Each structure stands twice: as C-alpha cells, then as structure tokens.
C-alpha cells in the first residue's frame, strides 16, 4: 500500500541576499512545475550558502517531484543535520524512502517526525501505509485508528484501514470500514471494488457481485472488476455468466494475470470443452512454462477423449513440475483409458509418494488395480482413501464396485449407502445400489433408488429402462404411470416405455389404458416379444382367449428357439388347453419343457394330461412342479384330483392337505373350481366356489369364478350377479368380463 505526498514549498526566511534570490527563483520555477530549473536555482543557493537548510529542503522537494528519490533523501538528510527538530523534513524523507521501497528506514523517520509532531494525523496515516507494505497489518491498523482519532470523518483513513484489515484476514472488519468510507465519499468507485473483494473473501458472493457492478458504473473499463465479478459468479456456480464477464475483461485488458486460465476453466464447467481448449491454448501462449496450465488443458483433452493429446500435455506438465502429485494422478487415469494398467498404477504410486494424503491418488490406483484384476488391492486402497477422508463419496462408490465384482453384494450395498449418506444427490451411487438391490431380490429398494435417481436426473432414459425391468416394479411405486409418461415424452419411439406404462396402468386398475399402451408399443415395434407376451397375458386374464392366442403365436413367430421363448410356448399351451385344443396344448407345453421349464410349465402340462385322462402322466408333472417349488399350492391341489382318479385316496388326501397348508383355503377351492370347469365338471366347480365363498365371503376371485361356472351352466342372470359382486369387492377385471357376458 503506497501513499505519496505532494511536496509543498514553505515561506523563505531571511538569508544572505544572493542565496535568498536563488531560493526565490527556485520556488518560482517549482511553482511553474519546471523542477529541473528549480534544482539548478537551489543548487546555486547552496553553493553560496552551504549550511542553508531551506535550500536543501526545497531542492529535496524538487528532486522528489522529479521522482529522483535518492537525491531527495540525501537533501532531506542534510536538512535534518542542519535542523534536527524539523519534523516535516523527517516526514518528507520518510515518504521518499517509501517511494523506493525502503520501508524500514521510512518507518524510523516517521517515528522521529511523530515524536516531534505527535498530533499530525497525516504522519500516522503514512506510517500506517509503510507498515502495510511490510505486511505489518496490526501496526498499520493501529496507526490508521490513531489517525482517525485526530482526524475523524476522514474517508481515506477508513479506506486504508479497511485495506489493512482485509489483508490481515479480518474481512468483516474491512467491510465495516468500507461501509463508513462509502458513506463519507459515495462517489469513489474504488471503495465499492475494495468492499466487493472483502465480501468475496467472506463468501458473500452475491454481495460482492452487487459491489463489483456498482464499481463498474463508475468505471466501465475496469477489467479487474469484471475479472473478480466473474470469479464470484463462478463460486456461485453461475459459470455461464462468469464466462461473459471474463470475456468482457479480456476485451479491455487481455494481459490480466490468470484471465484466460480462469476463462478456460469456466468454459469447461459449462460443458464447452472445445471453448475451454481454445482459451487454455491462449493461456499457454501467455504462460508457456506454467505446469498447471498444461495440466488443466490435458484434463480438457481427456474429457474430449483425446487421450494421446492429454498424455502429451500431462507429460509436459510433469516435466515442468515433477513434484506435482495431481499431474501424476490424472496421468494415471489417462493411461487407464489407453489400456496401460501398469503405467496407470505406476503413476498413482508416484502421486502417493509425493502426497501420501492424496485421496484421489488412492482412488486412481484402485482403478488401476481393478484393471489389473487385483480386487483385494482395490479394496485396500479404497479403505486407505476412506481413512484419509471418510466423507469421500467417490471412495465409497468405487469400493462398492470392488465388493460387487467380488460377489459380495451386501458389502457393496453398504458402501453405496454410505456414499449416499455423504452425498444425498450422488446419482451413480443410487444407480449401482438399485442394480445390486434388484439382484438380491430387494425389488422395493431397487425401485426406490431408481425413482430417487430419476428425481435428480429426469433425462436418464437408461434409468427408466432399469426401473421398468425390475420384476413387478408397479407393486412398489404409485408413480409408475407418471414416470413412464415422462419417459415416453423423452423418447416416444421406445416401445418398452409403453410396455412399462401399460403395466403400471394395469396395476392401478386402468385396464383399457394399459391395453392402449400395449397396442401403442406394438405399433412402435411389432417385434417386441415382451409386449406381445404381456398383452397376451392380459387378454387371457380377461378370457379373451382368441386374442391371447394371436399374441402368443406372433411372439413365437418372431422367436421360437431362445430360452425366453419357453414362457411364450407355456402360455400358448395354457390357452390352447382352455380352448380344449389339447393336442396343440400338449405340443406347446412339451416344447416349453424342452427349452426351459419351471413349476408353472409342469402345472399347465399336468392339467392338459388330466383333461386327456392321462392321470399317471398328470401326477408325474404335478410332482415335478412341487419338486421345483415345494410350496406350490395349485400343484398339490391338482395332484389330489389326479391321484383320486387313480384311486390313490391317501395320496389325494395328503396332497390336498399340502395345498391347504401352503395356500389360502378360499384361493385353493377357487383354483380347483377353475380346473374342474376346464375338465367339464361344472357341477363340481360350482360346489368348490360355494366352499370358497363360505371360507371367505370377501374373496372377489371366488365370485368371478362362480360367475364363469354359471355361464357354463347357462345360468346367465345369476352369473351376472356374481360378476357384479366381484366388481363390488374391488376386482376391476371382473367388470371387463361382465361387460362381455352381461350386456
């Protein structure tokens, strides 16, 4: 903080006539600002009177105005020798010493001047400035404070004390002083600029931006105000506006220190990697030997997937500064992209040697070890990273990935959970945790994670797909319809989004809306087997057997050999059996068993064999079903009928007991009613429906099945009453069936 004095001339004392004349001439020349001529006149006076203190003093002033401070200091020293109590000579000598950066001697002379004139506020002010230049901000503040006691209301003193407080780190105190200075002198634009600096240092970026803006109204060409306002905007995350301000600063003064460096980083923050690259190129033109500029340009090139260019810059950065751990750490990541796992590990090792507390270096080395299949090493490095900083969301995420690769899904989920606790908006952690929860059959948890992720990143089409592929996702969310409506708006051509929304609508009871979505999905992609299967199953559920058969047949035409086709053959066989096309049904179910069988496949085939009176074959299939799923109540119940046909009363009783053990009684009897109806035992079916309703009068499914049984018995009015009862109890599909039979 430099402060310069204006050097004034003082009245002439009575000297020898000739010296006095030269001094008068010298003052006249000085007042006309012809300081060289003034020096000549004062020199002549000194030649005539070598002990004339005034002549030395005035010549010193003239030298000072010529900025020949060394000569001025010599003449002030001569003046002081001749007049040891002349406080002004000490004061001016001190100021000249400050002008050449000799602050220690300046302070000594200010001390002497103050001892002779202790009530002169200016002397304290200038001594405070000298102390500030020596970074003695505490001493400077004390001097400015004392000067304010002598000269209250002096805006300049508040300004200088504010600068000293700011430099000391007392930003709040600095702001208080700037506030007072601005009240006293509201037309000084620099005061707003200084206050803005203090507010920015105090993390009040909005306040700083307002003050920089005011400063710019006083001086629209103040490039530094634009630069620092841009920095404040960047700290608020408003990088786009920061870029605009950096560009304004560059238009005024492109030589400002770090300007292009800051501008390049801001361009990178708004996702304009190419723009960032252009400005880093300019920064390198300004600072061709700055290692950090090459480092950051290398990172931008890496973002642009120019890994070879990134390597070149990072190599150059390391050559300029081989002690920068960050450069090695980032080069490690680039080498990993170039499939140089060993090189990546070596660079990460170097980064850790240079900075053993570098969290990122351990993470980088863990990624290199993961590439080298050293999973145990990965976990060790990430555990060390977490020991360094247990708030590192990335460390927990990557360690979770390592545990996942080891097959330890629970440990992976724990780490993903901790990452989310550290950073509740960490989308990667929600994604990975959701995937692992789905694999551990925690469908509810998976759906919750994917929903959260979509609330943070609603444009992620891949996450909508993952959500839709969670088994029965619609059971775990009430937002399925709105979520997949958003997905369809993002990509109306994605047929699966119609499938998923249809499933959500069906779960919410909007059957017509669901079918409309399945139709729309198939229109988008007629070869989408998943939609054909889902629509077929819905049609079967509503007794539209012909429509179901058409959908299953279309799916098989598209794919008749893959494992996934087994479920289509299975369901087509089930519908063929409903239509009493037992030969076709058996062929489809045999095909399903040959491809991939489950307990339901054997159950359906057993039912067909039962209808064909192949009771022994039926018993075998029901046995296979219960072998695969020992709690399959339907298979036990159906087996009890087949064994009864074979005369195995004990076996029939045992199987029926198991059916009631593993299934609700009303449900078991309703299922048996459906089976008996399919094998032309309508009377037996009706009796089972009555039993089911006796067991649970609120079971809508029993009323629906009783209605279907009465349709088979030509008891239409009674059937419609049962359908309506099922609807009344909340079974929405019963309304669709009633509409078919009771119009």
TrEMBL record:
PROSITE patterns per UniProt: TPR (PS50005), TPR_REGION (PS50293)
Iron-sulfur listed as a keyword: no
Signal peptide: 1-16
Keywords, comma-separated and alphabetical: Repeat, Signal, TPR repeat
TPR repeat start-end pairs: 19-52, 53-86, 87-120, 121-154, 155-188, 223-256, 257-290, 291-324, 393-426, 427-460, 566-599
PANTHER family recorded: TETRATRICOPEPTIDE REPEAT PROTEIN 6 (PTHR44858), UDP-N-ACETYLGLUCOSAMINE--PEPTIDE N-ACETYLGLUCOSAMINYLTRANSFERASE SPINDLY-RELATED (PTHR44858:SF1)
Name the UniProt record assigns to this protein: Tetratricopeptide (TPR) repeat protein
């Amino acid at each position: 903080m430099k402060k310069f004095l204006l050097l004034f001339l003082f009245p002439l004392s009575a000297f020898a006539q000739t010296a006095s004349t030269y001094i008068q001439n010298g003052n006249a020349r000085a007042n006309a600002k012809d300081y060289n001529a003034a020096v000549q006149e004062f020199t002549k006076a000194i030649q005539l009177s070598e002990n004339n203190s005034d002549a030395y003093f005035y010549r010193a002033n003239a030298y000072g105005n010529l900025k020949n401070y060394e000569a001025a200091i010599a003449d002030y020293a001569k003046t002081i020798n001749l007049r040891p109590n002349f406080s002004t000579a000490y004061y001016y000598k001190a100021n000249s010493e400050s002008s050449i950066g000799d602050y220690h001697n300046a302070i000594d002379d200010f001390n002497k001047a103050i001892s002779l004139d202790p009530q002169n506020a200016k002397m304290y002010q200038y001594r405070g400035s000298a102390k500030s230049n020596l970074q003695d901000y505490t001493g400077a503040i004390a001097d400015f404070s004392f000067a304010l006691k002598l000269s209250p209301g002096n805006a300049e003193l508040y300004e200088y004390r504010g600068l000293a407080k700011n430099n000391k780190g007392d930003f709040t105190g600095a702001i208080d002083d700037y506030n007072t200075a601005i009240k006293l002198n509201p037309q000084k634009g620099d005061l707003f600029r200084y206050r803005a600096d203090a507010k920015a240092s105090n993390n009040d970026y909005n306040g700083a931006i307002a003050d920089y803006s005011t400063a710019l109204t006083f001086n629209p060409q103040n490039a530094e105000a634009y630069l620092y306002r841009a920095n404040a905007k960047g700290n608020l995350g408003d990088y786009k506006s920061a870029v605009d301000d950096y560009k304004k600063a560059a238009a005024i003064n492109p030589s400002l220190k770090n300007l292009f460096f800051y501008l390049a980083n801001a361009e990178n923050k708004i996702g304009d990697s190419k723009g960032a690259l252009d400005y880093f190129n300019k920064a390198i033109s300004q600072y061709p030997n700055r290692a950090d500029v090459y480092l950051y340009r290398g990172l931008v090139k890496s973002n642009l997937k120019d890994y070879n260019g990134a390597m070149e810059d990072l190599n150059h950065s390391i050559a300029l500064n081989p002690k920068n751990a960050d450069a090695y750490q980032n080069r490690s990541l680039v080498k990993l992209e170039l499939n140089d796992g060993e090189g990546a590990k070596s660079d990460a090792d170097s980064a850790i040697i240079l900075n053993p507390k570098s969290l990122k270096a351990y993470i980088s080395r863990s990624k290199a070890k993961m590439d080298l299949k050293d999973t145990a090493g990965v976990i060790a490095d990430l555990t060390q990273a977490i020991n360094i900083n247990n708030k590192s969301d990335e460390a927990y995420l990557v360690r979770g990935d390592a545990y996942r690769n080891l097959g330890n899904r629970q440990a992976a989920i724990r780490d993903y959970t901790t990452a989310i606790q550290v950073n509740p908006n960490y989308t990667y952690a929600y994604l990975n945790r959701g995937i692992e929860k789905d694999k551990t059959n925690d469908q509810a948890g998976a759906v919750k994670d994917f929903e959260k992720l979509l609330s943070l990143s609603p444009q992620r089409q891949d996450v909508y797909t993952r959500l839709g592929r969670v088994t029965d996702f619609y059971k775990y969310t009430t937002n399925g319809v709105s979520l997949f409506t958003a997905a369809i708006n993002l990509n109306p051509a994605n047929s699966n989004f119609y499938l998923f929304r249809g499933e959500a609508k069906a779960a919410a009871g909007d059957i017509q809306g669901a079918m409309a979505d399945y139709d729309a999905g198939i229109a988008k992609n007629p070869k989408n087997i998943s939609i054909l299967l889902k629509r077929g199953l819905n049609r079967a559920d509503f007794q539209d057997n012909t429509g179901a058969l058409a959908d299953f047949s279309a799916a098989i035409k598209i794919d008749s050999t893959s494992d996934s086709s087994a479920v289509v053959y299975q369901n087509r066989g089930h519908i063929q059996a409903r239509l009493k096309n037992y030969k076709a049904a058996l062929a489809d179910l045999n095909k399903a068993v040959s491809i991939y069988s489950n307990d339901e496949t054997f159950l359906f085939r057993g039912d067909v064999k039962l209808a064909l009176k192949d009771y022994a074959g039926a018993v075998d299939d029901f046995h296979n079903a219960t072998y695969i799923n020992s709690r399959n109540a339907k298979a036990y119940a159906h087996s009890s009928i087949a064994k009864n046909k074979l005369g195995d009363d004990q076996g029939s009783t045992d199987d029926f007991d198991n059916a009631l053990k593993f299934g609700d009684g009303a449900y078991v009897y309703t299922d048996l009613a459906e089976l008996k109806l399919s094998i032309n035992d309508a009377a037996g079916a009706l009796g089972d429906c009555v039993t089911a309703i006796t067991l649970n009068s609120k079971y809508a499914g029993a009323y629906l099945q009783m209605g279907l049984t009465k349709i088979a018995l030509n008891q239409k009015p009674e059937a419609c009453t049962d359908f309506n009862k099922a609807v009344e109890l909340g079974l929405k599909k019963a309304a669709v069936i009633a509409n078919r039979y009771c119009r």
